[in-house]
Automatic annotation (TrEMBL):
Pfam families: DAO. Residues 2-413 form the FAD dependent oxidoreductase domain. InterPro entries: FAD-dep_OxRdtase (IPR006076), FAD/NAD-bd_sf (IPR036188). The lineage of its organism: Bacteria, Pseudomonadati, Pseudomonadota, Betaproteobacteria, Burkholderiales. GO terms for cellular component: cytoplasm; plasma membrane. This is D-amino-acid dehydrogenase. It comes from the Bacteria.
Length: 434
């Protein structure tokens, strides 16, 4: 089949990879001049999510104070944003959280296998490291994380619960003052450079005949029972017969279209009358040179409650988090200086508290991006009411690993083969579940 994939982030590239592996002819359309320029660019390094760092669950926004949760909650008078936060709060309940994470888990498992297969087949160096230490400042934080820690046990995820002293012994860059309550070490959890992985995989795909239409924006999707097609905006600088700016829309047709366009997804689906209750969440990244080698952590440190990850990537520290939850309209505009400042201050403070002296924060490069989250914490990986349209989106702020497994499910749906995940998981990811 001919398949068009809209979006050149990890979601789209992973989808193209699985579609090509299943024998389809694939064309990826991306509005930027190259791939990995959306949320994928700001990626914090975690390859697969664990119950300790998914962005819903018992510890997520238990209070509304950014200093405690790492999330600046600025709904203003926007009732949609408040409702969205309320829906996510349902998963503070440990049983609901366990059920939801249980549905997600098979996707995480296939993702692990997919990434391992890619690494076995192609010798790709994308700055992989191993070992993640989740740290907790207060006893209460550890108690709140108890149901997530139990899920690590029930899914047989290798982990060790560490006392404060054991945390410092495992990662000497953590200071003993101020005191911490303890931590959870995931010795096999991996971190790496997601934008680099995405670019390397794009190269593999190009060599294998996948077509890339870069610098082209999809403005609308058309789908009927026989064919699907996407409309591309005129190229910048294109001229018409009279020398004026061309308004000619290019149409490319295919047997199926996959929308993996990150935050661009809702607008594209709207052209077919499909609406989704997804909400944007802004996130920040600081990338700073290592200041003192002897103070730089060899493990990735995650402040589990504030959801701030501090990952070493070669000679740089990448610090990510500083989430801002505000209305969709505000999230689509440049963030105000004061909000950016608050979010970045959270990252700077976490670096100072957990790995002082490791990174030259004054020389850090700041970046911010937007991720879509669903009100039940799970992505949308699904066929749609249009037989030729598929959606792979809303992987949330832990999207690398999920995207790779989700891609395999989408490829199976398009190829009419049995997806390798239980029916319960497929139902939980469907577009019509909301
Ligand atoms: C700061 C930050 C830190 C993160 N940290 C982690 C982490 O540690 N671990 C983890 O697993 N995940 C992390 N995530 C989440 C992860 O990066 C995302 O889930 C993932 O990158 C999403 O990939 P995507 O392909 O769905 O979206 P994107 O990367 O946003 O890609 C979508 C692409 O579609 C293109 N597009 C959109 N509309 C159109 C259109 N109309 N026409 C053509 N092209 C279009 C965009 O230009 C973009 O390139 C983080 C996210 C952020 C922002």
């Amino acid at each position: 089949m001919d398949v068009i994939v809209i979006g050149g982030g990890i979601g789209g590239i992973a989808t193209a990879y699985q579609l090509r592996a299943a024998g389809h002819r694939v064309c990826v359309v991306e509005r930027h001049a190259t791939v990995a320029q959306g949320a994928t660019y700001g990626h914090g390094g975690a390859v697969l999510p664990s119950p300790l760092d998914v962005w819903f669950g018992p510890t997520f926004m238990q209070t509304r104070r950014a200093a405690k949760t790492g999330i600046v909650f600025k709904p203003g008078f926007n009732s949609e944003t408040r409702d969205f936060a309320k829906k996510l709060a349902q998963f503070h309940d440990p049983h609901r959280f366990a059920t939801q994470y249980g549905a997600l888990r098979p996707l995480v498992d296939i993702s692990r296998d997919v990434i391992a297969e890619i690494e076995a087949e192609f010798p790709l160096d994308f700055e992989q490291r191993t070992g993640v230490l989740h740290v907790f400042r207060h006893e209460r934080d550890l108690e709140l994380a108890d149901s997530a820690i139990k899920l690590l046990q029930s899914f047989e995820t290798p982990h060790r619960i560490l006392s404060a002293q054991e945390c410092i012994a495992a990662e000497p860059s953590i200071p003993d003052d101020p005191p911490l309550a303890g931590g959870v070490l995931l010795p096999d959890a991996r971190t790496a450079n997601c934008p680099l992985f995405t670019k390397l995989l794009k190269q593999v795909l190009e060599d294998d005949g996948v077509q890339f239409r870069l610098g082209r924006e999809v403005t609308a999707i058309r789908a009927d029972a026989q064919r699907a097609a996407v409309e591309l905006a005129p190229l910048n600088g294109a001229v018409d017969g009279k020398g004026g700016r061309s308004r000619e829309v290019e149409l490319i047709a295919a047997d199926a279209v996959v929308v993996a366009a990150g935050t661009g997804t809702p607008a594209l689906l709207a052209t077919l009358g499909i609406s989704l209750p997804l909400h944007p969440l802004s996130l920040h990244t600081l990338t700073a040179p290592i200041a003192y080698e002897e103070r730089a952590p060899h493990l990735t440190i995650v402040d589990s409650v504030k959801r701030i990850a501090m990952t070493r990537i070669n000679q740089r520290m990448r610090v990510t988090g500083g989430a801002v939850l505000q209305s969709a309209a505000k999230a689509s505009k440049p963030m105000s200086e004061s909000l950016t400042h608050r979010a970045l201050a959270l990252l700077g403070q976490a670096t100072h508290d957990w790995i002082p002296g490791a990174a030259k924060v004054s020389a850090a490069r700041a970046w911010s991006g937007v991720r879509l989250m669903s009100p039940d914490g799970l992505p949308v990986v699904s066929a749609t009411s249009h037989a030729r349209l598929f959606v792979n989106t809303a992987h949330g702020p832990a999207g690398w690993g999920i995207a790779c497994g989700a891609a395999k499910v989408i490829a199976a749906l398009i190829s009419h083969t049995e997806p390798d995940v239980p029916e319960r998981t497929l139902r939980a990811l469907r577009i019509d579940r909301f």
